[in-house]
Amino acid sequence: MKRDSRLSGVLHVLLHMAERDAPVTSEVLAKAMDTNPVVIRRIMSGLRDQGYVRSEKGHGGGWTLAHDLATISLRDVYEALGQPALFAVGNRTEAPGCLVEQAVNAALDRAFDDAEALLLSRLGDVSLAMLSADFQKRLGDRRNRHRLETAHAS
């Protein structure tokens, strides 16, 4: 089963958008996600419908963030994407006649429900501001390493 990477991709472009002071076109975002601009517009429309981003048409237009990063959680973005399936694993049949398979399904359903609740809770605990802070730290660390490497090479 193919993985649904929309959440990861959208989080990626939202953080790139946060680093810019100007609107970002669907074409630029599509290049960052290695996809088609139509796909970007479809994905971003869910975020726009929830009020997380804005779109402006015409010359100089594009997508901009509509909220402070601290007010948007990863769960918010996940829900704006239409809550794609979190797990690729599932039951062989949904309504089996076999009692053994019913027992298997009941156990797996409980486990999947528990895992999904935990994952959604964790996604709700992480804001885009937290991701941005982690990015800024990594960027600073990289710059410091580069300075040290350059200084030692001299």
Structure write-up:
A hairpin with a 5-residue loop joins β1 and β2. The chain has a two-stranded antiparallel ribbon with strand order 1-2. By secondary structure, the protein is mostly helical. It starts with 5 loop residues before the first helix and ends with a helix. The chain is extended, with a radius of gyration of 20 Å.
Query: What's the end-to-end separation, in Å?
Result: 51 Å
Helix content: 55-70%
Q: What is the strand arrangement across the widest sheet? A: 1-2
The ordered string of helix (H) and strand (E) elements is HHHEEHHH
Helix/strand structural class? mainly alpha
Biggest beta sheet summary? 2 strands, antiparallel
Unreliable residue stretches: none
Q: What is the helix tally?
A: 6
The share of residues in extended strands comes to 5-15%
**Shape summary:** extended
Mean pLDDT, nearest integer?
90
Query: How many strand units?
Result: 2
> What is Rg?
20 Å
